[in-house]
Amino acid sequence: MAAAPSSFRPEEARSPPALELPTPPLSKFKVALCQLSVTADKARNISHARAAIEAAAAKGAKLVLLPEIWNGPYSNDSFPEYAEDIEAGGDAAPSFSMMSEVARSLQITLVGGSIAERSNNNLYNTCCIFGSDGKLKGKHRKIHLFDIDIPGKITFKESKTLTAGQNPTVVDTDVGRIGIGICYDIRFQELAMLYAARGAHLLCYPGAFNMTTGPLHWELLQRARAADNQVLVGPFGEVIATTEHEETTIIAEIDYSLIEQRRQFLPLQYQRRGDLYQLVDVQRLGSQ
Ligand SMILES: NC(=O)CCC(=O)C(=O)O
């Protein structure tokens, strides 16, 4: 959020936003969310993830999602060991190569959870998004690193080993426009607002929540982001499908016609008081 610039005209702010929801290539499809058990054995994690993706596609999923840091343990000691050089590809990036290959062979869109990425002596927590041709459509480096200190409960500092990403990520895919965040990114509502303003149909946040704040907040945060921005969980903040902590894949139907319908029922975008507050898209400002 930022104060309005001095050239700001309230009557413009109160008119509908210039960016309407683009027409998605598919209006209804199945999404699969794979929740995976992760071990210290990277090769096993990769084949295990592949099997889950294949099983989801066999059930008709056109979009498959993996969780945060699925190819090894989620710890500062492990990030350097399991990190991959995505740009080099091949043997330097076996998790990345598997995802690209499986997306192509199954002709699905794959939001590849996240893996630690090594680039120019930095490590990032990175989500790769693959199109149904197996090509990398986009890469999101976690913007908000998870640094937390709740005495006696949890202390963790992702920033000890990882570098924060610098860019919001929106990708156009066969299943619509997707805004990407990774786990802790979901707590920062401006990012979700920005994605909605950029016409995202769907927001995907691969996660690995901790067990202190997680049970309290993970559903709350997803519902809040969806209800604020009228995007899916459901666009009214309704949970379409959920599960507990065990390994499983949940499959649900996404119906984008609900977004337009819910936005007509409850026309927040025309009621927003841009004359009093405004979200400034710094990347767009910079490119003007
Ligand atoms: N991996 C993460 O970013 C964890 C975020 C989390 O647990 C939270 O409470 O937020």
Automatic annotation (TrEMBL):
According to the record, the residues making up region (Disordered) are 1-21
Q: Which SUPFAM superfamilies match?
A: Carbon-nitrogen hydrolase
Q: Enumerate the PROSITE patterns for this protein.
A: CN_HYDROLASE (PS50263)
Q: Name one GO molecular function term.
A: omega-amidase activity
Instruction: Return the Gene3D superfamilies for the record.
Output: Carbon-nitrogen hydrolase
| Keyword annotations from UniProtKB, A to Z | Hydrolase
Q: Which InterPro entries match?
A: C-N_Hydrolase, C-N_Hydrolase_sf, Nit1/2_C-N_Hydrolase
Tree of life domain: Eukaryota
CDD domains xrefs: nit (cd07572)
- What Gene Ontology cellular component terms go with this record? mitochondrion
Protein known as: CN hydrolase domain-containing protein
